[in-house]
Amino acid sequence: MEHLQAAEEYLEKADADIERIDARTNPDAANRAVAEALTSTDTPVIELPPDGSVNLPGGYIAPDGQVFTQAEVRELTGVDEEALARPEVTKSLGRFTQLLLQRGVTRLGEFDNPNNSLLGSLLIGDRDMLLIAIRRATYGSSLELSVECPACSEKLDLQYDLEKDIPVKKMEDPLNRAFPYGLKDGRKLSCKLAIGVDQEAILNAGTKTVPELNTLLLSRCITDEAGVPIGVEGVRALGIHDRREILKAITEAQPGPQYQSLTVVCPVCGKDFPLSLTLFDLFR
């Protein structure tokens, strides 16, 4: 959209300044003008939106066990903007994310226009990769942010390249998405990486404290040795240390964009602080 606006502004200015030549009455001058245009080095280069292909760090696992890591996204249009701005969508971050992916992702592996069920089965890190790709296809790779230094309150203007400046973690074994965890009492648990439907459940949970949201997430990711979910009450019964260790392990094992690795060094006070990117920052 930014690229189209820049092109329109350039053409309007060029149209006002150009010397018009009628090829019917002055063919020699017209031919010279065409030749000069074709060989000119002053012709502005209008940056096109990036390619819509995406390499997923985890990938979609089909029922037959095949892993698909290739996807495609498209630029969002005015129709999408109107749909995303509806009250029933904006009041729920989970619904907003779901609709954004549904409209922006055009292919996932061998599936065209994947539905919510398929998108919901993706790892959170894969969904983050798709969201960045949709953002790049719509607005370009450059992301400008204004943040405040927590140490000295200095306002800083930052610019990032979404393609180059955000490190991406890939999975060594895309089929291995769970790990064991041993409790102090000897019991063994199995912990899986969170996927899209888990993320949507958290985002749609309404007003809850951080520990309550952690309980909800863990209840969706932990089972006993037999593969039976331990449920909300089972998670609540876990020690605080175990809860935090499992949550940390689930978070660190998640592939995808590593937003938490981004830090800012304040040029005024010299202090560094982490930069937290959100969906709002990408699509505001």
Can you walk through the features of this model?
The chain is α+β, with helices and mostly antiparallel strands. The radius of gyration is 25 Å and the shape is globular. It contains twelve helices and 13 strands. The protein folds into three domains: 38 residues; 139 residues, no CATH class; 77 residues, no CATH class. The N terminus is likely disordered. The chain has a four-stranded antiparallel β-sheet with strand order 1-2-3-4. A three-stranded antiparallel β-sheet has the order 8-9-10. A two-stranded antiparallel sheet has the order 5-6.
Count up the domains. 3
The largest pleated sheet is described as: 4 strands, antiparallel
The number of distinct helices, counting runs of at least 4 residues, comes to: 12
Proportion in β-strands: 15-25%
- Gyration radius over CA: 25 Å
The beta-strand count equals 13
Q: What is the SS-derived class?
A: alpha+beta
Strand/helix succession? HHEEHHHEEHHEEEEEHHEHHEEEH
Mean pLDDT: 85
The coarse silhouette is globular
* Poorly predicted ranges: 1-24, 37-49
Short description:
With 284 residues, the chain is α+β, with helices and mostly antiparallel strands. Helix content is 42%, strand content 21%.
Main traits of this protein?
globular; alpha+beta; three-stranded antiparallel β-sheet; four-stranded antiparallel β-sheet; 3 domains; 284 residues; single chain; 21% strand; disordered N terminus
